[in-house]
Specification:
alpha/beta; Rossmann fold; 5-stranded parallel beta sheet; 3-stranded antiparallel beta sheet; 9 helices; about 15% strand
Length: about 220
């Protein structure tokens, strides 16, 4: 099962990717996670990407396409994968198609999480991350037992620059301008399915499971 989860920041793609990867035994490939790891390690790629991510802008295509192409070549992706956060532009989608073709792969489905701006802003602006272990919290949905302190390791929680409300609004604008055309791109290919990204985690997982069964992907 080779699928893409498509939708604006805060649509719940990352959360569903983790659940689906565990359920179906295929890797969750998140360009955001890979880029953040590069930033944490102060690698040249990470430092180059950081300036864009902090402003809520897209990382250049050639950087991300190369990153994803290398990842899907690994043995654990042979049975399938879940792409989260990529592609973000039609140019990236074309680059992905070319990379998949070289491996004799093709996408089974692209799922679009249709999400309201209000829900996206609430989800992202409320997110907090532990500086020490990287565990994610949410002030409303997954609050820590003690404000500002990680339950797991006692580390300090912080708000990522790209999760601040003003930056979130800019990220949503960038999405509308550059990423939403992907909906038309994949719709024309006949592999796009639309679901509501405003649904809760459990309800959305049930909806996705039914979509996969109907498409005979599981």
């Amino acid at each position: 099962m080779k699928i893409i989860l498509l939708g604006p920041p805060g649509a719940g793609k990352g959360t569903q990717s983790v659940v689906l990867a565990r359920e179906y035994g295929i890797p969750h490939i998140s360009t955001g996670d890979m880029l953040r790891e590069s930033i944490k390690a102060a690698l040249p790629l990470g430092l180059k990407a950081k300036a864009y991510m902090d402003k809520g802008e897209l990382v250049p295509d050639e950087v991300v396409i190369g990153l994803v192409a290398d990842r899907i070549k690994k043995p654990d992706a042979a049975r399938g994968f879940i792409l989260d956060g990529f592609p973000r532009t039609v140019k990236q989608a074309v680059g992905l198609d070319e990379a998949l073709a070289q491996l004799s792969y093709s996408l089974d489905m692209v799922i679009y999480f249709d999400t309201s701006a209000e829900v996206a802003i609430e989800r992202l602006s409320g997110r907090r991350v532990c500086k020490t272990c990287g565990f994610n919290y949410h002030l409303k949905n997954i609050p820590p037992k003690k404000a500002g302190i990680c339950d797991k390791c006692g580390g300090t929680l912080f708000q990522r620059p790209d999760d601040k409300e003003d930056t979130v609004k800019n990220r949503l604008k960038v999405y509308e301008d550059q990423t939403k055309p992907l909906v038309d791109y994949y719709m024309k290919k006949g592999i796009l399915k639309k679901v509501s990204g405003d649904l809760g985690v459990d309800h959305l997982f049930e909806v996705l499971s039914k979509v996969f069964v109907a498409a005979k992907l599981v």
